[in-house]
């Protein structure tokens, strides 16, 4: 099945999913038909102009979603709107997720929910989405968030998806940094799920710097911090991340992306990202050797990670980093036969968690964008890639 057909299949799960003559989905029309298209607070979290400064106090769910109660993915629960079943159990597709969440398929909430669900998908691919027996701490660095600052409360969804966990989602971008500077504290949002849903707490905070870069403290403390669990309710941020993520191709344009890749590889920290198009990931993969080589050839950069870290980068380069991934993908594709609809999904799911595997994100925003001058199927958060599998440590 082609990538375009795969993306259209995601849209076809929804009764309002209309495919235009050019194969795209007119999201503006879908929102306008529900009176959700426009600018300003009166359009809640659907406002087409990103203006997080307007949200010093977050909108409540009713004002933010502006959907009928039955179509709203509530985070505050009541007898007439119960929490979803615990523990979270659903197949990785929107139909199954909506069923677990108690949402009808005519709800357009997916057009925003793909942001937190894409984060969940990336954490799943690197082995950090299992339900822990003991309470754990999970620190995630979100690199270059360009969307979501004006609807942070929807990321409370992660507290339902990752039970028994203290989640710290730390945002690294100029926009997030500016918002943090205007906020009374770096803590931008906090939500705690009910005890019956695992009682997780998510804290979203702005990083102290606009660009991501590792501190000596975070490097030296990574092993100790990531191997310990915590049930502390402190709002103080942890220093070492358990995972690095980026959404919608933002990692490709991050000013310190070479340092992100090198740190991830040297310290064995999981790094995963989404992109609008498969080609975007492929180009990033091809550039990996060029990005990583200076950390081996320049002593000053090499000393940042020590001998063990540099050795990991050397081993990765020696194994044919980047280009080798793409060659492996071509070999696998060449050996595959024709598949019927729904067949082969087990293998695809297994590949999705491999380093360098570029696969369709089942939690992408439904519907493709209008085609560019050269037709390539693309959609927000459409494709995932694990750049460093790392080690899932709590």
UniProtKB/TrEMBL annotation:
Residue stretches of biased makeup (Low complexity): 217-239
Matches recorded under InterPro entries: Mss51-like_C
Residue ranges of the region described as Disordered: 212-239, 331-354
All residue ranges annotated as the Mitochondrial splicing suppressor 51-like C-terminal domain in the record: 116-288
Acidic residues: bias regions: 337-352
Pfam families tied to this protein: MSS51_C
Name recorded for this polypeptide: Mitochondrial splicing suppressor 51-like C-terminal domain-containing protein
Species the sequence originates in: Botryobasidium botryosum (strain FD-172 SS1)
